[in-house]
# Entry
Amino acid sequence: MKFGVIGYGYWGPNVVRNLTSLEESQVLAIAEMSPNARKRAQKAYPGIHITPDATEVISSPKIDAVAVITPVWTHYELAKAALENGKHVFVEKPFTSNSAQGEELINLAQRKNLKIMVDHTFLFTGAVKKIWELLDEGQLCGWCGGGHGMVDGGSV
# Structure
C-alpha cells in the first residue's frame, strides 16, 4: 500500500517510521506546513517527496491511503477530502472534534467502500487490557457492569 502522510510534527515521525518499516507499505509523500519539520523529514527520508501542500498528497493518484497526523481541528476536513479522493484514511487520535464529524466520516468511508481507522496508541498494552478486564468484572465502578469492554473485541 502506498501512503501519504500529512503532518510531521510531534507524532508524524513515529508514523512515518512505522509505515516505512512495513514490508507491504511505502510512504510516497509527506505534507508538512512547518519549514523546520520539512527539513527534518527530508533529512530522515531523502527518497520521500516532501511538500507544504496537503492537497498534493490527498489528490495524488499514486497514493492509496493517507495518514492524518495533524491537530485535531484539522482532522475532519483532511480526512473528508482524502475519502472524497478515494483514499483509505488513518487518523491520529482524537478522531474528530465532535461525534457528528466522526459519524459523517465513517458513513462516507462506508459509501465509498474505503477503510478509515483511528490510532489508539495504548489500546493493546498490558495496562489498558487490565483496566478493561477490571471494568468488565465490575471492580472499578458500580455502574459499569460487564460485557462491554474491548479486551475480547467487543464495543465500548
Summary: The first helix runs from residue 12 to 21. The first strand starts at residue 2 and ends at 6. Confidence is low (pLDDT under 50) at residues 147-156.
